[in-house]
Amino acid sequence: MSQPLSIGLVQAAARHHSARDLDSFAAEVRRYTKTYPGVRLLAHPELHLCGHTPDEDPEEVMAAAAEPLDGPRDKTLAALAGDLGIWLVPGSVYERGEDGRIYNTAAVYSPQGRRVAAYRKIFPWRPHETTASGTQFVVFDMDGYGRVGLSICYDAWFPEVTRHLAWQGADLVLNLVRTPTVDRAQELVLARANAIVNQTFMASVNAAPPDGIGRSVLVDPEGRVRAEAGPEPELVLTDVVDLAEARRVRAYGTAGLTRVWDPFAQGQPPLELPLYEGWLDPARWREGLGG
Predict the structure, then answer these.
(1) How far is the C-alpha of 105 from the C-alpha of 74, rounded, in Å?
(2) Model confidence at 182: pLDDT above 90
């Protein structure tokens, strides 16, 4: 059994990469939790803590802001989540990996003050983004609520990402976004499409101006928009959802009809996938789902 989950999607402009702004961020999060005391999961946009001003070189900012995953920033954020007793996704940050490369990484902190997940963006927006690419799909369990998957901005354009997260049992996919361009209109379509074809909740949380154009959205497993923001400069888009709804839709079908995880007959041969030089194996199709 799962209980209803109160979600807060923070649509706000990015903060500068400094210790002072990290303190300001903590104060902001505390203010949100006082204003919305029921929120259990608070998620921020892509690179929310690694902003830069127009006169700064983005590459220099990236190098200056990058820290090891377990650096001082990590400890501060973990302590903040623990102090407030919330699930905190502070947006993605620049992470300096053990290999010396810089990644665009989203971390998740539990109400117990621990980092429970970290996801490196698999599909940077080439050629504009120069961070290294991640290689793993990441989900984490929220005890009593359900399973959540992580993706970052451009990842949503690649169906393999959300499909793998759903296959790993994600009831909700958090897509952390920093889109200031006109293709936000297409991203909203993708949020609904990814929700429909994978039968999972999709939360697309975009930055506010000047870093993004807002229009954050929460979509249910049948593709219905539950909550949507405009281009407001700062807001917290809230809703209360039961993540078990994703499992119900998978079991009984979209509109009580379409069950996208049940396409294979017993003994059907694998489907060759030339693009991947591999196969879609019916025996594995449902193997990880809901596990």
Answers:
(1) 12
(2) yes
In a domain, 282, yes or no: no
Convert the pLDDT of each residue in 93-143 to its tens digit.
999 999 999 999 999 999 999 999 999 999 999 999 999 999 999 999 999
Residue 157 lies in a domain: yes
Which helix (H) or strand (E) segment is 31 a member of?
Answer: helix 19-35
Range of the domain at 40: 5-260
The closest alpha carbon to 138, from 155, 124, 154, belongs to 155
Q: Is residue 283 part of a domain?
A: no
The CATH code of the domain that includes 101 is: 3.60.110.10
Q: How many domains does the chain have?
A: 1
φ and ψ at residue 272, rounded to 5 degrees: -70, 135
Helices 72-84 and 19-35 pack at an angle, to 10 degrees, of: 20
DSSP assignment of 246-267, as one string?
HHHHHHH-BTTTB-TT--PPTT
Cα–Cα distance list, 241 to 39, 43, 201, 257 (Å) = 11, 15, 9, 22
**Residue 95 is which amino acid?**
E
Q: Answer whether the bond into residue 127 is a cis peptide, omega within 30°.
A: yes
Is residue 277 domain-resident? Answer: no
Question: What is this structure's pTM?
Answer: 0.96
Catalogue the E-assigned strands of the chain: 5-12, 41-43, 87-89, 92-96, 102-109, 115-120, 139-142, 146-152, 172-177, 201-206, 217-219, 225-228, 234-241, 271-273, 278-280
Expressed in angstroms, the distance from the first to the final Cα of the chain is 15
The answer to whether 81 and 87 have CB atoms below 8 angstroms apart is: yes
**Pairing relationship of beta strands 5-12 and 41-43 according to DSSP bridges:** parallel
Q: Which of 238, 184, 186 is nearest to 206 (CA)?
A: 184
